[in-house]
Each structure stands twice: as structure tokens, then as C-alpha cells.
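Try it yourself: sequence plus succinic acid, in.
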Amino acid sequence: MQTIHWGELTPEQFLKEYWQKKPLLIKGAFKDFTDPIDANELAGLAMESEIESRIIANKNNQWQVEQGPFESFDKFGENNWTLLVQAVNNWSRDTQALLTAVSFIPQWRIDDVMVSFSTPNGGVGAHLDQYDVFIIQGEGKRRWQVGAPDSSLEELLPHPDLKQVSDFVAVIDEITEAGDLLYIPPNHPHNGISIENSINFSIGFQAPNNQELWSSFADKLIDEDLGEQRFPDNDRSLTTQPQLLEQSDIAKLKLFMQQQLEDDSLFTPFIGKYLTLNHHALEILMPVSPITEGRLDDILAESENTLVPVSGIKSLIIENKPHQASFLYINGESFLIDKETMELATYLTKPHTLTTKQVKSLMTCLKNKQLLTNVLNMGFWYVA
Ligand code: SIN
Ligand code: CO
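Structure, out:
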């Protein structure tokens, strides 16, 4: 369990004063911080084809970008480069555990933990990200500079795959050491230059934009043959100006579209699925043969068995409004839940392993048994 030592600050104050507003460096935020993954293990992940990785190097003032998977790192030498690996939390349970540090923000906002290994003088250059990020300094030291949003900054493209910005005025300029935590709001220029071999853990947040939301919602309507009804106007009155699209008709057309968003039977499954679909590959472990409720009893009878969630899998619960159903969403799939299944559903949204003892007492309720077998059969949790 990772906890942030906030010093003078509280998480409430952080949200009020810094979140999406101002960058912040908390020195010694994690006491005795130990890296959940080391440089060798990270290099191993960067050799896998389903894991997204890249190396950014700056040799003789020439920026180079190479996409993984990598077979060897020898040619990059001893300095001036950074290896970045996306969604390391999908492959490293200890890296996933870092996310408990930010549980004061709903988990649906979290995207992934990107891990970078930088050699001396390595970095990706000054740039902007559109998302909030918490950067934890692991092994080694790095100089981090962060500025305020500035519309006069020039966009630079020193390589077709590398967006940077021109020099900025730093409001934070510090050397980070193991256990330091840097928070960078969206669109704040920043630059981290490694002083020695160093590892950074970046908790990135997801914030869909309207383009993504509207186009995914339209995809849902198309895929499920929904929204095919035509614009109705059975209350139409006579017009003397047929060339006009009247404001009253614009309002009706708008309402016609809005009704789709307002329809919870459409929007709830859409948003639950959208926010729990992973943006990176996951290690889904389907059972060799389907688990029946009888087989589940046998599994739970063996006290050494444990139930384990797929690392990095996204989940959330949407609680019911009056007279509506509640749902558990895991990796884009929905499970109907109610008062009796809420405790199990809550367990199923946590990244922690469950013992048979924790689960067995809940199995007297048939609905819990069905929920657990469904989740196991989809490979979102597995027996170990
Ligand atoms: C890095 O760790 O090198 C890059 C992190 C970032 O700037 O977003
Ligand atoms: Co960045």
C-alpha cells in the first residue's frame, strides 16, 4: 500500500489548489521508496511485441526516436537516451500497486503507469501532455523543470515522432530523488533531464475529449442498430416562410439528439464500457474449460487457492438511481448487481488478491456465485 506523505498539504487542499491548476513537487512523498520494477525487467518488457515502448535519444543535438520491441540496447551507449514503456502496470503487479497512492481520485480517471529508464543526460525534451500526470522518482536523480501554460511557446518537431516546445520559464526547477512526487497538470511545459541512470514512474490520467466520446457513442448506436427512429413533428403548424429553419425547429432537433444522451438505458452501458476498456494489451487468462458453479465450490474448498485480478484491468461500479439497476463494469463488460452482490462487486474492482475465506461466506447467495463464475469465465480474474 503506497501512501503519499503530503507534508503541510492534505489531499483535499491538493485537489482545491493544485489539481488541474498548478504543478507541485513533494520531496520525500514516499518514505523508503523501492522501485516496483528495475531497469533490467523494464528492458525485458520492451522486448515484447505486445507492449508499447520507444527509445528517445539525443546524440550530437540530433533527436532520434525508435519504436520497440527491442532486441538489444547496446547500440544506444551509456548516455543521452531514455527508454519509455507504456502501461507497465498491466504486466507488473507491484507497479499496479503504486496506484493506491492516488485513490483520492476515482479510479476511472486513471489511464496507466508509464515507466521510463534514462541514462545520464537522457530525456524526451521540453513538451506538453494533454493529461494530468504524477511522476514518482525511483532510482537515480533527475532534474525536473515545469512551467506554466504559455501560448507564446513554439511547437517544435525535431523528429516526425517527437513533439516538443521551445524553452519555457520554469516555476519548478529541482533535482528529484527516490520517493519524490511531481504533479504536472495538463498543458504545462515540462522537461526531465537525467543526472545519472534513473527511473521514473508516471501515473497518467484519462480524460476523453468530446470527439472521442461523441464518435464512440455514435459507434454504439450504429453497432446496435439504435437511434434509427426519424425526427417527428406531428404538432407542426402552418408556415408562411418555407425557406426558414426556425429556431423552434432547431430546438426540437437538438432535443431529438439530446434525448439519446438523456436515455440512461443507452448512456450508462456506453460510458461504463467506454471507461473500462483498456488502451493497452492485457494479460487476460481464460480458464482452460468453463468454470461451473459446482467447480467453483471445489476451487473455494481448497484453502491454498487464491483469486487474482488481471493486473491493470479497469473496472468501476455505477450505483443505481431510484428504480434503476446498478452495474459492475470490468474491461468493457457489464454485470448487473444489487444490494446482495455489492460487497463482492466492490472486491472485484480492487487490485488485491482474494483468499477463499474472504469469498466463501459470500457464496451462500446464488447471485454472488453467478457473478464470480461469470468474471472468472471471462478471464478478468483467475484462480492461482
Ligand atoms: C519521462 O519519464 O521521461 C517522460 C515523462 C513525461 O514527461 O511525461
Ligand atoms: Co510529459
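One thing you can check immediately is this: The chain has a mean pLDDT of 96.
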